[in-house]
């Protein structure tokens, strides 16, 4: 057993805005600075006991409480309620000081809510361990990532939440709930994807696994111009590879014809187990999120977690970007992929007034030329977590239980709110058109605009989840407008009128 604990922990003075003694308001921004809110204050407890005391004190006053991770989202999930918009105080909470970590012989790891992936993954590695899967960059707080269903790719790989076998959760009254796979398996399925609304997660226990190596291959392939055939091909690649990211097709703006033009070359990035033991070299370059080049063939070898997720030297791309990611049963991939792409193409006319007539400048899009609309396809094994975007709860009995995702990014050629919001209007249109047809579930922390009626179709257990929400949070202190609207938390709506 290896134990870590922050010796500084108790020496930290809690950082607390002097409420009532003059405003120390705290403005929060997401990673790309297009989503923001202003809280009455910011509370950074030195340890769990400080947090418990704070939450107990705030309960009678019904103070709004928003725990935040690293703000790597695209929508309003993580926003606080603006100070002055209700008659309550509103606090942002950071658990960054909760940095204890203990590793057990059975490869379970228990750690505080302060751990970010960028520190957690190397710490596990030093102890001969890794997690089963990660997203494409190690930018998130572990809880911030897991609780929204963050995923990587792989038909036999699940999202991060499934790594969790235990949680310590603080409710609005200030009571700790211990939830575990062993003793309360149903509650664990509710809480793994709690999206900040089921309480403050102070500690996680995950099941890690021994370190292993992967070989990563990047390969550029030309796809057919015909979009139906292109998506048949993409679905075949999905069948062929166990763990693959399919980057492309893209839509490029042609300044002469003033329209979007499909570019049907694809970059396959796939991973295979290997017994390689040489020097690891996947961190050199990674065709993901503008962190490296996607236009060439190469292979690399690394520890699993470094081969699938890049430890960014900062964030690779930080300009405005409108992005959704939609999950649906893999059986629908060829048709849904075709229909989504043709729909995006059909929006071309409306983009005309917003395009510059000089070509995309280098720099804004990272170190090399990028595209106006990019599509990425990934795969995830389904699960039974109640609010998981890959929950199997409404699938027909003969379904494989494997999901595909389409990630669409609209990348403006200049950072301008008018353009960013216009792109958001374009991407809002997809769920109403395709949602029911293809059983589409949106990523919780990318752009999501669905209503409660739709939420109850894709999350059949939502009412039981909302019952737990009410028990954990009787005064709606963990709820913001986004949660109230997209989940239909009726009892909290009046706060936002
Ligand atoms: C460049 C980039 C790359 C990305 N790549 C991927 C990818 O490959 N795959 C993928 O699936 N997603 C990806 N995402 C999305 C990202 O994984 C999610 O948005 C994730 O939720 C961000 O984590 P965070 O720590 O920044 O969370 P935040 O946005 O800060 O928080 C997310 C939610 O968690 C809640 N929360 C945080 N901490 C706690 C706590 N202690 N207790 C209770 N609730 C808490 C917050 O209240 C909020 O509701 C990417 C995003 C970006 C910007
Ligand atoms: C976030 O909320 C603000 C304020 O209600 C709204 O103007 C904006 O459109 C929302 N953005 C997204 C991406 O949902
Ligand atoms: C792992 O070991 C710890 C410490 O002995 C124990 O408390 C825990 O129950 C074990 N967990 C599992 C899943 O075996
Ligand atoms: C744009 O379209 C014109 C006319 O079809 C074509 O000649 C030109 O090559 C295209 N430009 C780019 C950059 O593809
Ligand atoms: C990584 O190392 C392997 C084995 O030496 C080599 O074949 C491969 O080209 C290297 N990849 C990169 C990206 O340097
Ligand atoms: C933002 O873009 C819109 C649409 O192209 C344009 O009308 C507006 O002037 C731009 N605003 C700024 C501040 O550049
Ligand atoms: C499942 O059954 C339905 C109805 O019988 C059928 O239309 C569908 O093709 C089947 N799906 C799979 C994946 O076999
Ligand atoms: C809710 O969303 C669904 C799916 O987008 C849509 O069909 C329906 O009209 C919406 N209902 C309301 C009341 O807005």
UniProtKB/TrEMBL annotation:
<dbReference type="Pfam" id="PF04030">
    <property type="entry name" value="ALO"/>
</dbReference>
<comment type="pathway">
    <text>Cofactor biosynthesis; D-erythroascorbate biosynthesis; dehydro-D-arabinono-1,4-lactone from D-arabinose: step 2/2.</text>
</comment>
<keyword id="KW-0560">Oxidoreductase</keyword>
<keyword id="KW-0732">Signal</keyword>
<dbReference type="InterPro" id="IPR006094">
    <property type="entry name" value="Oxid_FAD_bind_N"/>
</dbReference>
<dbReference type="GO" id="GO:0016020">
    <property type="term" value="C:membrane"/>
</dbReference>
<dbReference type="Pfam" id="PF01565">
    <property type="entry name" value="FAD_binding_4"/>
</dbReference>
<dbReference type="InterPro" id="IPR016167">
    <property type="entry name" value="FAD-bd_PCMH_sub1"/>
</dbReference>
<dbReference type="InterPro" id="IPR036318">
    <property type="entry name" value="FAD-bd_PCMH-like_sf"/>
</dbReference>
<protein>
    <recommendedName>
        <fullName>D-arabinono-1,4-lactone oxidase</fullName>
        <ecNumber>1.1.3.37</ecNumber>
    </recommendedName>
</protein>
<dbReference type="GO" id="GO:0071949">
    <property type="term" value="F:FAD binding"/>
</dbReference>
<feature type="domain" description="FAD-binding PCMH-type">
    <location>
        <begin position="35"/>
        <end position="211"/>
    </location>
</feature>
<feature type="signal peptide">
    <location>
        <begin position="1"/>
        <end position="25"/>
    </location>
</feature>
<dbReference type="InterPro" id="IPR010031">
    <property type="entry name" value="FAD_lactone_oxidase-like"/>
</dbReference>
<dbReference type="InterPro" id="IPR016169">
    <property type="entry name" value="FAD-bd_PCMH_sub2"/>
</dbReference>
<dbReference type="InterPro" id="IPR016166">
    <property type="entry name" value="FAD-bd_PCMH"/>
</dbReference>
<dbReference type="GO" id="GO:0003885">
    <property type="term" value="F:D-arabinono-1,4-lactone oxidase activity"/>
</dbReference>
<dbReference type="InterPro" id="IPR007173">
    <property type="entry name" value="ALO_C"/>
</dbReference>
């Amino acid at each position: 057993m290896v134990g870590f604990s922050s010796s500084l922990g108790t020496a930290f003075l809690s950082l607390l805005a002097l409420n009532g003694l003059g405003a120390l308001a705290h403005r929060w921004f997401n990673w790309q600075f297009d989503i923001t809110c202003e809280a009455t204050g910011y509370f950074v407890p030195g340890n769990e006991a400080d947090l418990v005391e704070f939450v107990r004190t705030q309960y009678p006053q019904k103070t709004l409480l928003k725990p935040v991770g690293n703000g790597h989202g695209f929508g309003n999930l993580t926003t606080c309620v603006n100070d002055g918009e209700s008659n309550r105080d509103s606090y942002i909470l950071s658990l960054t000081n909760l940095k204890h970590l203990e590793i057990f012989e059975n490869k379970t790891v228990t750690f505080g809510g302060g751990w970010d992936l960028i520190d957690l993954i190397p710490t596990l590695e030093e102890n001969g361990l890794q997690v089963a899967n990660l997203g494409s960059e190690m930018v998130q707080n572990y809880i911030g990532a897991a609780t929204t269903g963050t995923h990587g790719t792989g038909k036999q790989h699940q999202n991060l939440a499934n790594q969790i076998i235990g949680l310590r959760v603080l409710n609005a009254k200030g009571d700790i709930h211990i939830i575990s796979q062993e003793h309360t398996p149903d509650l664990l399925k509710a809480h793994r994807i709690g999206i900040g609304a089921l309480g403050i997660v102070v500690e996680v226990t995950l099941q890690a696994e021994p370190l292993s190596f992967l070989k990563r291959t990047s390969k550029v392939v030309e796809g057919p111009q015909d979009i139906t055939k292109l998506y048949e091909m993409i679905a075949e690649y999905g069948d062929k590879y166990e763990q693959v990211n399919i980057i492309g097709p893209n839509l490029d703006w042609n300044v002469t014809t003033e329209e979007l033009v499909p570019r049907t070359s694809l970059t396959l990035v796939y991973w295979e187990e290997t017994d390689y033991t040489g020097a690891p070299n996947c961190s050199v370059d990674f065709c993901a999120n503008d962190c490296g080049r996607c236009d060439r063939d190469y292979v690399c070898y690394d520890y699993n977690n470094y081969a699938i997720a890049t430890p960014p030297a900062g964030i690779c791309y930080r300009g405005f970007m409108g992005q959704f990611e939609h999950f649906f049963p893999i059986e629908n991939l060829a048709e849904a992929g075709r229909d989504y792409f043709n729909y995006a193409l059909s929006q071309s006319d409306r983009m005309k007034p917003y395009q510059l007539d000089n070509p995309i400048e280098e720099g804004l899009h990272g170190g090399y030329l990028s595209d106006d609309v990019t599509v990425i396809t990934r795969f995830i094994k389904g699960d039974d977590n109640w609010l998981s975007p890959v929950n199997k709860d409404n699938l027909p009995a003969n379904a494989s239980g494997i999901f595909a995702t389409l990630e669409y990014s609209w990348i403006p050629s200049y950072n301008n709110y008018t353009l960013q919001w216009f792109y958001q209007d374009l991407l809002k249109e997809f769920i109403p058109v395709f949602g029911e047809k293809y059983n589409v579930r949106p990523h919780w922390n990318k752009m999501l605009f669905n209503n409660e009626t739709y939420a109850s179709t894709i999350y059949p257990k939502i009412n039981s989840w909302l019952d737990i929400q009410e028990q954990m949070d009787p005064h709606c202190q963990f709820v913001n407008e986004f949660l109230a609207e997209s989940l239909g938390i009726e009892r909290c709506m009046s706060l936002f009128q």
